[in-house]
Design goal:
The chain has one domain. It is 25% helix and 31% strand. 6% of the residues are buried. The longest helix is centred in the last third of the chain and has 18 residues. The chain has a three-stranded antiparallel β-sheet with strand order 2-1-3, with helices on one face.
């Protein structure tokens, strides 16, 4: 019997490292915005926008993002 093709995940997970030394793991980024000539750079912009929204809602400033890398 033939197997169904595996469904591709809609999201890619990223680890975000902040200037203050903290880290947040498994932040979700839609797969459709990644790739092409920009690589993973659109992920950083999206994660920064998410952090601004979180800061606005919580009233606490988020530290600046130092680096972003795909979760392994």
């Amino acid at each position: 019997m033939a197997r169904k093709p595996a469904a591709k995940s809609e999201f890619v997970l990223f680890d975000v490292f902040y200037d203050d030394g903290s880290r947040r793991s498994n932040r979700r980024v839609p797969r459709e915005i990644l790739g092409g000539l920009d690589g993973d750079e659109p992920a950083r912009a999206l994660l920064e926008a998410q952090d601004r929204e979180i800061a606005d809602r919580s009233g606490h400033a988020m530290p600046a993002i130092a680096t972003v890398k795909r979760s392994s």
